[in-house]
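Hello forum,

I keep getting stuck at the same step: I have a sequence, I want structure tokens, and every attempt I make locally crashes halfway through. Rather than fight my setup again tonight, could one of you with a working pipeline run this one for me? It's a single chain of 273 residues.
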Amino acid sequence: MRNLECTEFLRLCLPRLRLRWAGFRKVRRQVCKELSRRKAELGLPGFSAYEEYIKDHPEEWKILDSACRITISRFYRDKGVFEELCFKLLPSLARSILLSGGNELSCWSAGCCSGEEAYTLQILWKVRVIPAIRFDLPLRIIATDINRDVLERAREGCYPQSSLRDLPKELIPQAFTQSGKSFAVKKPFRENIEFAEQDIRIQQPAGFFHLILCRNLVLTYFEEALQQEILRRISNRLRRGGIFIIGIHESLPRGVTDIIPYGNTPGIYEKVL
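Reply #2:
Ran it on my machine without issues. Output:
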């Protein structure tokens, strides 16, 4: 009964936040847990009372919005994507940059959560890509998220073993220092990564990028009109010939013409215009 109440509450409130219910069906338990905790803090008996509370306290929408943020992440999530990056896309981008006289490969990890995606890229770059292409080129990553707490965990760079379960085993001793059950990212793999607090709905980092990853965020949780707005801004930040990566179960909305599928791996696109 409690879950049904929360579901009805979410269906009512999500459109106000420009979020869509379809993206929250599988993760509603995590969201409802946060909302139930907030409801208890306020001493409210149920979600109908919380609905009335929000009507009288419009500042609560900001807290509700923060409760709807999903924080699921791990290293090397979606193996096929990272293997395509490691063995094909990153070397190809690096060679193009070298031929054009560039001096770094720039990447934006949008919705970076606790930093696993950004660190995975830097680990692959230093351990596998640079030795294979045989020239040194910095990979600079700006990793952004709206959630201050997960960004703090990202900056600390310490993770439980469960976060590393998908990472190729041979990379773990090279990239991490183990202390008990905690694994800390070694200093060389922390270099050239900047973690920044940003709301992708209204903000994006300055500059232009050869690679942008925006996985399991915009195209899963946001309403389509907002998706279109954000994708236009992302496209403006992506260099021609650059790579854009979304979640393997996501798809671009209608009307996107300047970013097209790249190869056969789901979720990988190229900027062509």
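Strands lie at 105-110, 139-145, 158-160, 176-179, 182-185, 193-197, 209-213, 238-245, 259-261, 268-271. If your local run keeps crashing, start a new thread with the error log.
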